[in-house]
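Aim 2, interim progress. The first record below pairs a target sequence with its structure tokens.
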Amino acid sequence: MSAKGSRLAGLLLPPAIGLLVLLAAFELVARLFFAREAYLLPPPSAIAKAAWQERALLASATLSTGRAAALGFVASGALGVLFAIVLASSRLLERALYPYAIALQTVPIVAIAPLLVVWLGVGPKSVVASAFIVSVFPVVTNTLAGIRAVDPALRDLFRLYGARRFAVLTKLELPHATPSVAVGLRVAAGLAVIGAIVGELVAGFAEHDPGLGIVVMTAYRQLRTDLLFAAVACSAALGIALFSIVSLGAWLWLRRWYSGAR
């Protein structure tokens, strides 16, 4: 096995073995202590069976939730970076507006979601807005921190050579903030899935195109905990997938940036 293959195996084997051990323990506990009340804690084998039987529903729901989470994430990435640039342009603006960004982050999304229904109606718009609200703050705060961390001497050097504000932003501040923006985007990717599912629980009812939040709520009302666990597993897989895609994109972006910097 090549060195690259060995490193890959070293990365993948420990979590795979840990997952197998966890599933085996889960199966054993469920069969020993919840055999007569399987609806309380269905074993992984029953969850896998329910997932296979409802594979079309779960695939469609995962796609629906993933679409809303992706749209909310893209909006949070674009608007979050733009808002951070606006805040970084003036200390006065930062002191005036940043506390409201913090307040938006600290208010539970379940308290805001009903307002989204009133403003945007029931359906995808409210779900995307929920994903955006949950995921935008890490982008704002990390981008702002990256811009603020620029060495003042470098700013003075740019001004000494007559650089305009736009040149300072695009050629100094944003490149310097690139690693921080990447961190914010990775955090936002996972939060976007959470926001989308919460939005679906409150505002995303749709008989023709239900998301994972709707599947979770329906399974709960029917006491189908095997399907509920399967939907939760799909939610976790969706979050991991979106996080991994963004992490890979950020890694390629940073690699290209560092290569260009050299």
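The second target in this work package is listed in the same format:
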Amino acid sequence: MFFFAEKKYIILRKYAENNSYICRMNYSGKKAIYVWQNTDWPNFRWDDTQVAPLLNSVQEHQARLLGMLSVLGFDMQKQTTLESMTEDVVRSSEIEGELLNRDSVRSSIARHLGVNMPSAGSSDHYIEGIVQVAIDAVKNCNMPLDKERLCNWHAALFPTGRSGMYRITVADWRQGDEPMLVVSGALGKERVHYEAPPSSVVPHEMDRFMHWFNGDQPANQLLKAAVAHLWFVAVHPFDDGNGRLTRTLTDLLIARGTGMQCYSVSAEILKSRKDYYAILEHTTSGDMDITEWLLWFLQRIEAAITTSEQNLRGVLRKTEFWNGHADIEFNERQRKIINRLYDGFEGPLTSSKWAKICHCSPDTALRDITSLIEKGVLVKAPSGGRNTHYMLTN
């Protein structure tokens, strides 16, 4: 069982009643309370003296990124959206332990965005459904959130009506009397990390959530995204897919503030997946103070913006290069490698890599490289001999 995986599981334990909800005893013998069991749920609070400075910093950083994007043409902006959405869809699924074919995801998103791609491959129905959810969230970010929309998303994630081997309730809130537990560990040795509200109260909880989500408070969409992310996970309204859907809601709210998807929060969460689950467990098992969660989440957003900014600088450098070398003739192989170098080439560029990537002979690769050196585009790296490799001059 993956860490923080969702599972309906009946635990033989005496439950103490508190406001008709379930409390449990932790190992220290003290009563443990989940966030939804607080009497003031769902009135989240935080220390604004800690959150406000970071929020301002993230907003400024985001404004700089949007400023960089504004100087690009419409086609380049769509290309940036394509790459950001591809990264987000792939990484969000990877957080759940599911690996999607990146080329298929990218091809599907490109078709929806109207981005022309040479030799764009086909995608299966499952990937197409996941992509449609992501597109709907970003493209229609200003549309109200309601049960029908959420359930349509859920149906797209589980087209067979099953999660793995198990049949689940699809396109409706979870049902049944057994508790919804978030567990990890081998069968028979599960560790319970969180228990969600009973299924019987989910309709009421989701009505409150969606009313707040569609309201105008808080006005800042970054802050709202952080609160919504935690709130949705805490309610855990579906049998499965809650993590992916809460990250979709995050993208939706961020898109409301940016007008597009230009960075991937899921990619940054994946880099800190262990910390992600730890902070969720800590925050959903405490009182209504979510300061720590907000700080952690806003830091992930800022890291995502930084990554996108770095990638965008590469795009701008590549654009400047081609504009500055418009009068120089390059063959198709040379254009392919130059673009790859600006997009983030993995490892050093050698003649053997050139030959492999371009499907040409070693002699042809060396002639291509020599030609680019003579044109002042490439330079031989300081290390020589058998480790000879090449780099861009700028």
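The chain has two domains: 5-314, 330-392. This observation will shape the mutagenesis plan for the next reporting period.
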